[in-house]
Design a protein that fits this description.
By secondary structure, the protein is an all-beta fold. 0% of the residues lie in helices and 39% in strands.
């Protein structure tokens, strides 16, 4: 029972739809990345990706992404978000623009026959969301944001789809929107910080904090105020 005068922190209206929730806190250099969602997913850690207390948006640490590294989550239907409404959001702190592309989050089969989506940045430091319409590698469609992410600054990123419109938000402001009627959905692995496949050729360079993936709910369809506290865990 709560003491008089104390109020429980507000919960998440869409809590039951949260597929993955990483608050990214932990010991400096640690490689434990607890999923605070009801799923409790545990990734396979490749390379030197780790928590870092050097900087954090909330809490005491964030994920420091590195070359030849990624978090890999085994295929699960909770990650098949492109079959309906979804919201991918997180705080990112780029330290440099990628030379080719920097993969933030991607879902693919790890071989050569299919990808569902890729959320990444290009050398311009603008967001890019690439999705597939069929299992063929050649069936992809690319959508680019309009505003470059600033290096060495925390930015809240949200990409949402309501079944007809794909939207990109930076710090709660609508950066770009596109008509998208359908995306390919399949049961593939998901990678954070790089591809979910054997190659590690396109890492995101910087830090990530408070990562939340919501399946079946768009959350944002217009400008909003970015979170001022960690995402709730209930």
């Amino acid at each position: 029972m709560l003491s008089r005068g104390l109020r429980r922190a507000p919960g998440d209206l869409y809590w039951n739809s949260v597929s993955l929730l990483l608050n990214c806190d932990g010991a400096n250099g640690g490689t434990s990345f607890p999923d605070a969602s009801k799923n409790g997913f545990v990734p396979t850690v490749y390379g030197t990706i780790a928590t870092s207390t050097t900087r954090a948006k909330f809490g005491n640490a964030s994920i420091l992404c590195a070359a030849n590294s990624r978090l890999n989550y085994a295929a699960n239907s909770a990650f098949n978000i492109t079959g309906g409404n979804f919201c991918i959001e997180f705080w990112c702190y780029p330290t440099s623009a990628p030379s080719v592309q920097g993969v933030l989050i991607a879902q693919d089969d790890g071989i050569a026959n299919g990808t569902c989506f890729q959320l990444k940045t290009y050398p311009t430091n603008k967001l890019n969301f690439t999705y597939w319409t069929t299992s063929s590698r050649g069936s992809y469609v690319e959508k680019n944001g309009n505003t470059a992410l600033s290096n060495n600054v925390w930015t809240h990123v949200a990409v949402t789809w309501d079944g007809s419109t794909l939207r990109m938000f930076l710090n709660g402001a609508l950066d770009a929107s596109f008509a998208v009627s359908a995306m390919y959905s399949a049961n593939f692995d998901m990678g954070i910080g790089n591809w979910a496949r054997p190659t590690f050729s396109n890492p995101f360079v910087g830090n990530l904090d408070d990562i939340r993936i919501t399946k079946g709910q768009t959350r944002y369809t217009a400008a909003f105020t970015p979170p001022s506290r960690p995402f709730p865990t209930h």
